[in-house]
Amino acid sequence: MKDMKIEECEIYEIIKNSLPMGFTLVDREGVIIDFNQQAEVITGYLENEVMGKSHLEILHGTTEREACPLFQYALQKKRQTAAVETNIKQKSGEFITIVASISPLFDKDQNFVGGIELFRDITKTKKMERERKNILPMFAHDMKNPVITAEGFLSRLLSGKAGDLTEMQHSYLGTIKDALTKVDELISDFLEFSRFEATEYKPMKSAFDFEDAVVQQIEIARKEADEKNIKISYDYPENLISIINADGKMIGRAIVNLLDNAVKYSPDGSEVTVKLSDWNLEVLFEVRDTGTGIADEHLPYIFDAFYRVNRDTRGSGLGLSIAKTIIDAHGGKIWAKSSPGKGSIFYFTLPKDKR
After folding, report:
1. Do 176 and 249 belong together in one domain?
2. What are the E-state strand segments in 195-327?
3. 3 found inside a domain
4. How far apart are alpha carbons 256 and 192 in whole angstroms?
5. 305 and 340 share a domain?
6. Radius of gyration over every alpha carbon of the chain, rounded to an integer in angstroms
7. Pair 192, 213 in one domain
8. For residue 79, what pLDDT is reported?
9. Which residues of the chain are modeled with pLDDT < 50?
10. Which of 164, 198, 232 is the last residue of a domain?
11. Is residue 213 located within the same domain as residue 344?
């Protein structure tokens, strides 16, 4: 029996020190009673330097329990494990950012008896995120100015202000202008996405006619649809109350992103169907295409930034992500249904509340 207990302790030590992340175990007072090797690597402290000492003082540089997510959850009697981002202090005195999985422990009488933290250092990742957020808008902004200048001069050439053009020259310059327009659209997507990333998007709401906005965006989408001989049909109930309180400009952007996506992935000569309907206390927008469809393994990720199901298709991979940001900020929901070979249906809802 004694040998079995020794063996169990050895197994526990092996498991603890094999974890690919830091592990700390604290008692009800926040005193560290276990600390693994990865925790030593992350914090710079050796196990014997922290054992029996205050978790709050050693890693958080304070005696205030509210500064530690583990104790915040314990005070709220939250039993579930939670993932949080927080800062801790290394032995060197430098603060680093960690993502931690915290688990408060309670006895049968609901008394807090201690807790477990599993954590990893994400300081470098956070730094790279900040750099990317700074570089992306700077790069896009610097690219946009020469594109606008080039488009302006091409327009002058095409209008004949620099002299007559042959039919072939006019055709070539028109192709270049169309390509620059697409580049300009990509840059605009990057700028808009970086703006959403930099600050939390808060809609500038006012009463506007949602049904009118849908009709306007359909007319805009018809230009590209006509090039592929795609018919866009529209259906809505006559008694639909379409005056809602929302950021009309940005809702228009969400609509056009979904329409553009439907036209882009639909084959030539097919049909895209747009429908509005009442959906409990919300208005429901849906756009249905007859494209190649989306496999089940891709559906959970299609609203992620830069995610593209088909890498050969033009676009930034930001259209659906931007649409989701806009709809979420309005308290709506956005989702998709799809079957490979049968096309896709994209939906979003917006509250009817006019306040």
Report:
1. no
2. 206-209, 231-235, 243-246, 271-279, 282-288
3. no
4. 14
5. yes
6. 28
7. no
8. 63
9. 1-2, 4, 355
10. 198
11. yes
Do 84 and 102 touch, CB atoms closer than 8 A? yes
Considering the domain architecture, whether residues 288 and 219 belong to the same structural domain is answered as yes
Domain with 266, as residue range(s), is 206-351
CA atoms within 13 A on the CB side of 3: 0
Please check whether residue 234 is in contact with residue 213, taking contact to mean a CB–CB distance below 8 angstroms.
no
- Supply the angle between the helices 167-198 and 319-329 in degrees, to the nearest 10: 40
Q: Is 38 exposed, middle or buried (0-12, 13-18, 19+ CB in 10 A)?
A: buried
| Same-domain status, 94 and 214 | no
Mark whether 295 and 231 lie in a shared domain. Answer: yes
In the chain, the amino acid numbered 152 is G
Q: How many domains does the chain have?
A: 3
Same domain, 93 and 45: yes
Tens-digit pLDDT profile for residues 172-228: 888 888 777 777 777 777 667 766 665 667 888 888 888 888 898 898 888 888 989
What pLDDT is attached to residue 280? 80
Alpha-carbon distance 290 to 232, whole Å? 11
Torsion sign (Cα): 41, 43, 46, 47: negative
The Cα–Cα gap between 61 and 309 comes to 46
- pLDDT the model gives residue 187: 73
- Whole-number Cα distances in Å, 62 to 20, 46, 55, 65: 27, 20, 9, 8
Q: What is the pTM of this model?
A: 0.57
**Burial class, 110, CB count within 10 angstroms (exposed 0-12 / middle 13-18 / buried 19+):** exposed
Could you give the CA distance from residue 218 to residue 18 in angstroms, rounded to a whole number?
A: 57
